[in-house]
Specification:
The protein contains 9 helices and 4 strands; from the N terminus they run ααααβαββαβααα. It is an alpha+beta fold.
């Protein structure tokens, strides 16, 4: 069977990879953490990634999927795209959360979104990643969507606050005297 052949091929490549002594001594390094890889990436390669590569995930309301796919195609032209349905529930008691649904499914208390992910290098001779991402961010804001916060974010702080509801977040920062003690979410995720 194919599973036994792939299993035997991986064990022949690293025959001691599952041995207790290997996992005890070097298990912390396998697989490498993304933060470690980012730390070890040479600055020159980081600049190439920032200018030529796209790593984006955006949540868009399902009713805007067709025009969202058109926008991703126009800006990035990267395939395949990641498409994953997502159900955003209304918070209990009508509270607003950082990501709150807009138009809810009747009787459901939620709104359906689709996560569109684009990862890679667009097949364009001239490509400005920052400019293309800024246009997608604007499109997503205009269509009540949300950017995943691990993606490259080029929004201004006011644009970021327009995309994400900061009401409860700011209330908690005030309550626990976090201003000045901790950076804001925007300060943590923005691209400099």
């Amino acid at each position: 069977s194919s599973s036994s052949s792939s299993s035997s091929s991986s064990s022949s490549q690293v025959p001691f990879g599952n041995a207790w002594w290997f996992r005890y001594a070097l298990g912390w390094a396998m697989p490498p953490k993304i933060a470690l890889l980012k730390l070890l990436t040479p600055p020159s390669l980081v600049k190439v990634y920032e200018k030529k590569f796209v790593f984006q995930d955006m949540l868009v309301p399902v009713k805007t999927l067709t025009k969202s796919l058109d926008a991703f195609d126009q800006e990035f032209n990267i395939y395949p795209l990641w498409l994953c349905p997502y159900r955003q529930y209304k918070a209990p008691g009508g509270r607003k959360t950082f990501v709150s649904p807009g138009e809810q499914v009747p009787g459901g208390g939620y709104e359906m979104y689709v996560d569109i992910g684009a990862y890679g290098m667009p097949p364009k001779d001239v490509f400005d990643a920052k400019r293309a991402v800024r246009r997608i961010e604007e499109f997503v804001r205009e269509n009540r969507g949300f950017q995943m916060l691990y993606a490259d974010t080029y929004m201004t702080e006011s644009e970021f606050k327009a995309m994400f509801d900061h009401t409860l977040y700011e209330k908690m920062r005030d309550k626990y005297n976090a201003h000045g003690a901790f950076p804001t979410v925007f300060q943590k995720v923005r691209k400099r």
